[in-house]
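[job 0412] stage=fold_complex status=start
inputs:
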Amino acid sequence: MGWVAIYRREMLILTKKIGNMGYVFSTAISPFIYLFAFGLGLGDRVKVEGGYLPFLVSGIIGITVMMNSFQQTSSSVSVGKLYFHTFQSVVLSPVGNAAVVLGIVMAGVVRGLFFGALIFVMAWLFFGAGVLGSTGIVGMILGALCFSAMGTVVGLLVKHPDDVSLVNNFFITPMTFFGGSFFPLQNLPAWLGTIAGLFPIGSLNLLIRSSGWNGDSLAAAGILAGLTGIFFYWSVWLYSRYSE
Amino acid sequence: MIPGVSDPVAAVEAARLCKIYDGKNVIDNLSLTIPVGGVFGLLGPNGAGKTTLMKIMAGLVRPTVGTLTIFGEDAVARKSDMKCKVGLAPQDNNMERELSVEETLTVYGRMFGVPQLKRRVEETIEEFSLGDMRRKVVRTLSGGMMRRALIARTLMPKPELLLLDEPTVGLDPDVRHEIWEIIRNLASAGKTIVLTTHYMDEAEKLCEKIAILKAGRLAFLDTPEGIRNRFGGVDSNGEALETLFIQLAKEGRT
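[job 0412] stage=fold_complex status=done
writing structure:
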């Protein structure tokens, strides 16, 4: 049960941050601004089946889950590894490679779901967002797992703290704006829509918006689960070769 | 037989160890034996490879070539039971800054699967006189307090081999003496301690054997008495060691 020790370490550090309301507020403010800006500014102009606001709310929940899961693990590992050297205590411990990665990933999942749920509650309170179905809940969990594992890969791969912002700029930001969170992928040129359809955020959004289990939602869940597996094993492989 | 390697039952046995960073041999074909028990000093100018060697022994750095055994077992494979036998207190604080001292000890002990964790934390707090600072957040500790907490944390899982990288650097004389006392007590308790230092008096006072590294190689290995006999000095004030150190440094420049 070594992963529990790592998970509890990560969670203790995270709760110290979450205990600081400034941190919660600053983390929640971006999605909330997106919600207001796009909701009020584009609300009537984007034609989507079921209305733009429910579409936007689900997209922003997806983005929140993605960003928080990814950032929790990528910064915990990269900053701990390159800046404060706190990751050394994990490497020095006898906890096995897969258990270390699992502990880190699970903490990322908790952060992703915590902030995803927070945005959902805010959207429910202020915009009357509908309740999430089972596909939405499964999607959030799988999405959090996928992006948390992806963040662990990035955290272990980077050789310089600035490299994380490269990944943010070239992968996370394009996924934020071209992943079908703010507008349907069908609005994009066909070639760009096809590329954007491959982003894992697209699968996450599809599951959150899906009204029930069908071929598309099962395929989206399969993609997220598959990517989680790939990123997880990649992280374990990278960690097993860790050397300063 | 490899020069420098002789003891069949050693705490550490490095044979033809190399670590190359960007084409530079930071550890260069190093063979060294560190006996079980007592304090072993690793000295050398900046960039000699002391910290890299400590990190290799702790499992933070993988050697490029060579073998390393700790208490007779392969240390490069980084097996879990091996990690429990080795403790590293690095030169720079690597404790989480936002955790309290008590939380730091608990988290570290939990990762090592320390049995009766609460009791062990209390024991460690008492042993290292950390009672007054147990709830203090690490980032608020003074240099001396931080060093004491770092060594205490390293000892939570009761490692047999303790690696102390510059344990007294930048500390006031009274705190240095406090740390020396801790090191002496640990050595008396049967721990094997490897320490790096730039203070010659510290090395002479604490160490039973001293190795000087230079450009990643073993340049000198002897006891403090042996060094005094060859290079003068009557007291453990580091004079003889300093003479040797300067001589070795000059050799490199000529």
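[job 0412] summary: Chain A touches chain B through 25 residues (CB under 8 Å).
[job 0412] exit 0
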